[in-house]
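REVIEWER CHECKLIST
Item 1: Sequence provided? yes
Item 2: Single chain? yes
Item 3: Sequence as submitted:
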Amino acid sequence: MEKPTLVILAAGMGSRYGGLKQIDPVDDQGNKIIDFSIYDAMRAGFKKVVFIIKRENEQDFRTLVGDAVSKYMEVDYVFQDLQKVPEGFQIPEGRVKPWGTAHAILCCKDVVKEPFAVINSDDYYGQSAFKTLYDYLTTHQDDEKLRYAMVGYELGNTLTDNGYVSRGCCVTDENGYLVTIAERTHIEKRGEGAAFTEDGENYTDLPLDMLVSMNMWGFMPSILDELESAVQSFFATEVEKNPLKSECFLPIEVDKLLKADKATVEVLSSKDKWFGVTYKEDKPFVVESIKNLKKQGVYPEKLW
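Item 4: Structure as written out by the authors:
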């Protein structure tokens, strides 16, 4: 079986953070969260990384991330452009927001032909998560169904004190397979628990031990054909309803495949703690966490 590739979603606008957080250092050596993810992936066995970025950020990414990594892994760049729409569709006037994570992954179709992992650029997943996902991708393949995987985390370990977050809320069966996943774009801490809202006024409680997706997926290349159909349908139905803000979310499209009984998603667990930077106020906690991991010997002082 071909060696799997690591695909990193790094085209988000970072509006809540207030800057290009993907290249914001989290230690004194200039390493970013994305560097620690790539380092963990390399240790797990990944040999190639594909960055999904905005075209205007290419030089920054090459200089601050890609050039150093390219000495150790094969590196490729894919651009999530607003202009990449299905034939026959036009970009709504005033649209600046990217088309979502499903659209981003689809942009890899001409570059990625092998099994691949997907992660966010601004989330720390931990060393064991990459090893577990690599082991899955090198021992599974599609058969009568599409065979995918996801690394799950407890909701309570993925919240911030500084605002709301977006998470894929999951339900699994007794065998550890994903039954359904619902994308909640506004989850926040509420007292001793958590809740989500869809209108900004009415809140629904969520258990802190609920399994959530942090966009760490393992896919066979078959997902790219599925996403091509999904994006086509999205433009035909959803963009007209909400031309400036609608997004084609990866978890929603995976959920559709589950409901159609076309795919299975094995939910893998990680013993490592997740942390990330959604808001600038999150950064001090991340910096301290990285410092502690270095003290424990998990990482060298300088990665590259």
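Item 5: Key structural point noted by reviewer: The chain has a mean pLDDT of 92.
Item 6: Recommendation: ____
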